[in-house]
Amino acid sequence: MNWQAAIERTVTGLGYDLVDVERSARGLLRVFIDRLPNDPTGEFITVDDCEKVTRQLQHVLEVEGGSYERLEVSSPGLDRPLKKAADYARFAGEQIELTLKMPFQGRKKYSGVLQAQDGEGATGWRIVFNDGKTDQALDFSLEEVREARLVPVIDFKGRRFQAAPVAPGDEPQADEEVGGQEQ
């Protein structure tokens, strides 16, 4: 059995999704894991998850004869790559950045919302994007994709400033300044 199959078998056996494996110069082996969809234990990968997978992979790769100098196990990050059809199905409705292998109408890069194609027997995907004038849709198959990643969406509006409660009698008067601003 080859080392990639051993890694995939180990990661999925521990209840995680194998996102990607990278082998780079000087023996660095990077393994990116994610939680399975609808995992009841949480939404994000934790340090404990990475440690658990690292320990198991060290043993498996030693038995399988996988050569590496350094092993890194981590989450795929907020800009997670989409590699398999299951990834596209899982993240339908999310913002993605898509790079095609061949240009379409002079462009290879698109940023928009991922959708499954409608219709009976449809197996492709669609990205809905705005070209500056109107919304456009581009249908594509996974064979046409060079790279696709989630676009991190960070909501800073969810954490609104909460004023501290004011003690009775300490309320500012109408003409009084509070924090350098007039009330």
What is the structure about, briefly put?
Helix 1 packs antiparallel against helix 2 (about 45-65). The chain has helices spanning about 5-15, 45-65, 85-90; strands at about 15-25, 30-35, 70-75, 95-105, 105-115, 125-130, 135-140, 145-150, 175-180, 180. It is of the alpha+beta class and about 180 residues long.
Largest sheet: 5 strands, antiparallel
Side-by-side strand order of the widest sheet: 7-6-5-4-8
The helical percent reads 10-25%
Using the 3D structure, state the CATH architecture of the largest domain.
2-Layer Sandwich
What is the CA-based Rg, rounded?
24 Å
Instruction: State the helix count.
Output: 3
Shape: globular
Structural class: alpha+beta
CATH superfamily of the largest domain: RimP-like superfamily, N-terminal
The CATH topology name of the largest domain reads GMP Synthetase, Chain A, domain 3
Which series of helices and strands comes N to C?
HEEHEHEEEEEEE
How many discrete structural domains?
A: 2
Mean pLDDT: 85
**What ranges have pLDDT less than 50 throughout 5 or more consecutive residues?**
none
Distance linking N and C termini = 72 Å
